Fold these 2 entries.
Entry 1:
Amino acid sequence: MKEDLKEIKLKNRIHFIDENNNISEDNYYDVTYYSGGYAFVQEKPFGTWRLRDRKGNLSKLEFDLIILTQEGQNLIKIHNDKYRFLDYNGKISKDCYPRAETYNFGYARVYLDERKIKQGKHHYRDLLGNLTEYPTYLGNQTYKYFKKKISLKEFLEDEKLPYDEKLVDFVIRCEKEKLRKIKARGSGNSPKYYRPYIQSVEETIYKYKNKGKEKITQSKSNQNIELDEDNENQ
């Protein structure tokens, strides 16, 4: 998600300008917009990219490829490594692939086996990082929520939505970004405006987590019933 941060070009080099209009001493050949407190910077033409935080610190990791998207997951390739994904909080995925494509409508195509790339055998990676052979109801609904096509309540209180522990962290990150924008608006800075919003979010997440516990408990109960039946038949 794009953040407001100014850039200025001086003598064919790009500098950053902070909220106090101070121009950074460090400068680059090319830069991306800031997202989640980070921007990609390139020091020379055809060179690798690095992450820069708001204080000007650069990551040790270097990237051969970056493709930014508006779906919260950017496609990257660490220097001399495989393809990974970077979310808008600057978190790099642990899963990596010999080939991957950018996100489109909530999914990225990833290839698990380099030998099968030419055959086009791929999996779908949803916004939560789940891999499936086909698009799923969970993946479709997660995308709709992320693009604000459905509300948080419509999303998490959907009886057909399966429980996924990763979904809670994903929702919290999204709602924090929404809250940041609410506070950025004039009257939105007042607690009387954003506290009811926070309370509503917390209640919705709490219900979803409880629903998940119930499903896990029910699943374990069913397993116990099956085991008991097996014991009786022996």
Entry 2:
Amino acid sequence: MKLIEEIKKAEEKGENLKKNGENEGRQLLEKTREKGEKKIAALDDERKKLLEKELNKAQKTIDAEIKKLDAQHEKSTIKIEDSYKKNEEKAVKKIQELILKWPSSQ
């Protein structure tokens, strides 16, 4: 009889251990899942920060290149305008010379 009671107690103890094990396992899984989610969130935040940093760096590079291109464009425009003015003056002088050399203009 005593043996049967010990077996029943052992079975009950085993069931309790099994239930406790399942509960502890679920709790561990939940804790691990929460830790993983926190780590994923932290990594995502870090990724966003790095992405923003790289985008800012790229924007600075783009702005610098645009300034260079604007300066080159400005220089080219000034050169063209100066050349146009010089050529216009030369053309006006040549036309005046031709008019003066024309026999009917004398």
